[in-house]
Task: inverse folding
């Protein structure tokens, strides 16, 4: 399984993706993985953790950063599935089901936003636009380029200041931690799936 060498650090303050043994017995490996990854992608604990100690002079709205961090976490989780599973037969099943969960969740957010703000914000479309922008920013980078040096400023741009150090570092940390945790989780799913075929 592939791994971005720059993301190999293990000093992560945030929790691993939860394994639910009962649920894993009830569902197929791909269905279980998609559900666990979706639940992880919308969990807000690490978002809160990353924003718990901003610098005193930080000018970017905490609400803006929280919103953008959640988008980045969902996008990073979905992207990791394709990146780490490569040619594995589970890839399409997990990815498709994961994005179905995200689409359903997005519809709920869109409806709630329309009711509370009296205007429609298509959350899934926002996710698609962010994904496209992040992928475009990563196009053409060399193997020596640290992807975090690209994702951080891009995240900062969405928050309103691509030169703000705290914002760039926060986006980079979310991206790195998400990729590492998804990789660890997928390794266990692939091992279990291959064990069934043995």
Result:
């Amino acid at each position: 399984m592939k791994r971005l060498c720059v993301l190999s650090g293990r000093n992560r303050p945030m929790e691993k993706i939860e394994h639910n043994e009962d649920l894993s017995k009830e569902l197929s490996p791909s269905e279980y993985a998609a559900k666990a990854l979706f639940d992880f992608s919308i969990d807000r604990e690490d978002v809160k953790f990353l924003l718990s100690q901003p610098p005193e002079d930080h000018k970017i709205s905490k609400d803006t950063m929280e919103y953008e961090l959640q988008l980045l976490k969902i996008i990073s989780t979905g992207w990791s599935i394709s990146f780490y599973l490569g040619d594995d037969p589970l890839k399409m099943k997990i990815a498709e089901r994961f994005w179905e969960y995200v689409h359903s969740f997005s519809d709920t957010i869109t409806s709630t936003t329309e009711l509370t703000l009296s205007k429609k914000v298509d959350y899934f479309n926002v996710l698609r636009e962010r994904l496209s922008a992040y992928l475009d920013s990563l196009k053409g980078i060399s193997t020596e380029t640290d992807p975090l040096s690209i994702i951080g400023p891009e995240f900062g741009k969405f928050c309103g200041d691509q030169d703000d150090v705290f914002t760039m570092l926060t986006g980079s940390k979310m991206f790195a931690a998400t990729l590492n945790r998804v990789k660890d989780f997928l390794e266990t799913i692939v091992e279990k799936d291959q064990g069934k075929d043995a």
Q: What stands out?
A: The radius of gyration is 17 Å.
